[in-house]
Structure formats: C-alpha cells, structure tokens
Amino acid sequence: MIPYSRLNIILGLIKNSATTSKSTLSNFVLPVILILAAGLRFFALDQIDVRYDEAVAPIFAHEVAQGIWHQVVPFSGSVARHPALWLYILALPYLFTTNFYIIAGYRVLLDVIAVAATWLLGARYFNRRVAMLSALLFAVSPWAVHLSRKLWTAPLALWSVIALIGLLEIAQRRNPKGWLVALWGVSFAIGTHLAAIYVLPVFALVALLFRRTLRWRWVGLGLLPAVMIAAAYVAYDAQHAFVNICAMLFASSPSTIGSAPLRFAFWLSGGAHLSDLTGSAILQWQWQNAWAFEWIDEVQMWWLLLALLLPIYLAFKNGILYRHKAGDLFPPLQVGLFITFIWWLLPILAHLRHPEPFQVHYVSPLYPAPFVLMAFFADYLWGRAAGWGWGLNGVWRFCNIALVLGVFGWQIFTIWRFGNFMASHETGGYRAVAPALRAAQLARENANEVIVVVPNADPAVNEEAAILHFVLLGQAHRFSDANAGLIGCGMLRCNYLLGPGGPRIAEYLAPNSLQQIPIDQRYSLTKLSQHGLVFKNMPNSPIAANGIRFDGYAIERQPDKLRVLQLLHVLSLPPQGQDYHWYNHVLNVQGQKVAQLDGGGIHPSNWRVGDTLIQWFDIPMNVEQLQLVDSLRIGIYEYPNIKPIMLQLSDGKQQDGITLLVP
Known about the structure:
20 strands; five-stranded antiparallel β-sheet; five-stranded mixed β-sheet; alpha+beta
C-alpha cells in the first residue's frame, strides 16, 4: 500500500507535470501564431492599395524624417484633419531607408506586435485558451490583415490593445498603474486617428465604477502624451480659425442615424464583405468563386453575435450587477468580459448618429474586443461539457474544434485568394502598388534623374503623381504636367516615366524622338533624344525677371484651336514657393483680343538652372475666330496675385509681354 501522503505527492507531481506541459505547449503555439500573422500580412506585399490617401501619408512621413515638422496631417479626414502622430511613427524607418518593402514591413510589424499583445491580454485576464483563440482570430481575420497593410492615416490596432490592457488592469486587478497604460494607449490611438475618440465613453464608465483606483500621479503621467498631442493640434487650429475643432463639433455634412457602424463592426471580426473592395471587378470575383462556401462568413458573424449575448446572460445568472464580495464590485473573470464587452458596444452606440459617408475603418478601434469576446465564448462552450460523459464530451468538443478550424481555414483561404485576385484584376477603387514599383525600379536603373510625366502633375492634389512620388522617394525626380509641357534636363541622363495620360506628349513631339519602353498597360519609360520640333527664334531674345529666357516659339492653326509652343531656358531659380501663370492673348489685325488662354505651365518647383522647358497651350477657337487671328501676345504673371513679370528685351527696353505674328 502506498501511504496517503505519498499518494498526494505523486498526484501533485502528475498535476504539475500536466500544467507544465500545457504551459510549454502554449509557449510553442504563440510563435506559430505570430509567424502565421506575419506571413499573411507579408503575403504579396506589393499588392497593397496605394490610392491617394495611402500614398500621401508616407510622403509626409518622409518629410518629417527630413526635418519638416507637421502639427496635423495635411489632406486627411473627411470631417477634420487628424493629429500628426502617425507621420512621426511612420517616419522612423525613413531615417534609414526609403525602400518600400521595409517601410510596409515596418507597418505590418506593428500589427504583429498587436497580435502578441492580444495573447498577453487573454493570458493575463482570462486564460490561455482565450489567449490562443483571440490571438488566432486576430492573426487570420481578413479585414484585420487588410487594414494592417495600410500605410495611410488610419486607426492602429496596437494602441487599442494597449489601452484595453490598461483598463482591464484597473478593473480586474484594481491596479492604479493601469491608468498610465490605458491613457497612453488611448492618447496614441487618438493621436493616430480621431476615430479613437469614440472609445472615451468606456474610460468614463471605468473611471466611475472603479474610481477608487484613481491616483493623480498615474493619471497625470498617463495624460502627458494627450496634452502634448492636443496642444500641437489646438495651436495649429488656432492659426486656422479653429476650422478642424468646429468641424468635429458641428459636422458640415448632415448627420444620420444608420446601421453602418453596427454592420461594419460585425464585418471587421472576420472576412465578411471583403469582396466589396473588388469594386468594378466584383462580378469576376463572384464568378470565379461561385463554388466557395461564403456562408462561413455568416457563421463567423453569428459566433460574434452569440459571444456578445454571453456577457448579458452571465450578468443576470451570476449577479454581476451587484456586489459579489465585500469590497469587490465584480467577480474577477467576469469583470474582464464586461470591460471588453463595453469596449465593443459603447463606441458603436456613440457612432450610430454619424455624418455620411461612414467608412469601415472608423470602427477598427474596436480591435481586439471582438476576437477576445469570440474566444471567451468558444472557451465557455468548451467548458460546458466538463461534467458530461466521455462520449458526449468528446462529440461536443470535436464539434467546437471543427467549427473553429473551419473558420480559421476559410479566413486564411480568403486572404490568399483576395491577394491573387487584386494582382490580376483592375478594380477601379483599389490600386496595387506593384506596377508603380516596377516602373520606379526600371527608371532608377536607367537614369540619374527621372522626369515623371502625368496630367496635372502635382502630388499634393493628383493621385497618380502622389503614387509615383511615393515609390520614387530617395531617387532624384521631378514632375512635368503632360497637359502643359516637358522638361529637358540639360546634360543629365534623364528618363521620362509616363503615367496614364502621359503618352499625350507624342502629339507635341516628333514620334521619332521618343524611344518608349513599355512597362505595362499603365506605365512606360521614354528617353528623349531630341525634342523633334522646329522653333522660330524669339524676337528680341526677352529675358523675364523670374529667370526665364524665351528662346523660340511655334504656332500652328488647327481646325478647332490654335496650338502655341514655347521654348524656354532657365537661367536662375525664382523664390521658393513662388508660382507663375502664362497668358496667351490672340489678337486680330486691329490689335483687339479675340481669344485668350491662361495656364500654369511647368510648376517652378520643378525647374533647375540649365533646364530647357517646352510648354504648349491649345487655345480653343472656331473657324470664324481663326480667320481673324493676326498675332499673339504672351507673357508671365505671379499667381495668384496677378502681378506682371517684366521682360528685358535685347535693346534694353522692358515690357510686360511680347507680341508674335501668327503664320
């Protein structure tokens, strides 16, 4: 017979061995989950969306790395501009490199850290099964993967996870230091994107329920980043008539009560309606995937719905709404569930009345709450079979595992097929960066400097220019408006990167002067051996006060317009930030103006000393007007204050323009 005391020791060792085995297994599972999260997010990284918003944020971050400070994000937000914190976070890798894959990989890494932090949250405040399931759900959620690959100014899941950890530390462990973590998390969240403001009601409720944890030292330290971010934002807004603050308080667009926040919140828990991003190619998406089990997305949303009902059920079943023990407001495990539940619910209620249009990413600060709630619900179902017979217990748990694995497998497959679909289809609303990256790489290999030729070539307002500016960061490049002219860059070896609409320059330049290298249907690379045009010498060789010399011109009558080309030479650069417009006045024999066209030409920010500028203007005219044409008066003025730029003629006289005869 084994003595009773020794039997207890043996049983204790077996129990400790089993616990150690489980701990070792969970420690092995975490790296696997993080590798899976990273793999899905790094998959086809050159297929990420780089439309205008996605392109301009890295451009501004690169400016920050070069010492150009921003108080708010320029050109951001449908209601108000966002604080500039994201620009400073994204600027960190730009201090060392402009390589696109490193920049995008850095953004992905922040989301992988958020997955790891979700594991920490589950393990510390629930149990290891909840930690594993919630981290897995986060790792394979198609919407989470898609949003993690965004370089634009958007809510960052990492800050939401940190803020929620802080609140759970306060509520479940009554630790006042949790306020430092929670307030830093929410401050960084709001500083990255204003949508995070909608989680503030959660903080107010936690502060009310757990006010005994409030310690001014930790609250004060926690508020430091919020004060700094708010000070920079208010200082900027004070200089601009508080336009952003007023826009937030009094939305300019009419508000409506709608279900969009609730719908989007359910979508973001998995992959439901990710197909909406396929835009104009949605029919092709549906046709090639008609066999797919789309209903699994519905199962996943029902999973979330039932998970949301569980806290309410437990509240009434276990008396969560009254004091459970002396000096304790809630049972420790259920308080974590309750705080996670209100993190998901209260922002949606605050969002129900919203200005249109409402975007999916506005509710992404809810992460990681839906994954934790779903994991807790699955763990709760797993535990329901504890007292059943082995047969029922095994069947019940097998069904649970099959459901979870089915959803995980489907979401991984969704991510894979979405990436492949976007690589091979033109969707209209989604612009993969891959073609622009190939064009930029080829341009780098073939030139010291790249001239980007696209219509309206201003990265601040033109999407195509912004995309090419983004992928060419670190490479010497300038912009030439395909509708206005072309830059000849002197003795440097230049390539002309033509975007959509760029090939129109062939209308103005002799075809044999272009050596086009097609890259794909969107971009081509061109070397300009000569401009291929015959210009007349400009009379009196005028030199403008802004450093431009008029070398030649060409005028051509066409059936519906008068085409005017100017050959210019840059002798010196104008003041930084100065802009000019060019006027073209068509005159009849009596010197009366019969037509006029003003244009911006090539923007001065793209001039370099020694450049040759070829500018063209098509002046619309009918047949009767063309018959009256005798001469053309051209000149320059400062824009937008319309101050004439005087021309110094070869005989020493000064004029505000020069008159040319029209052949």
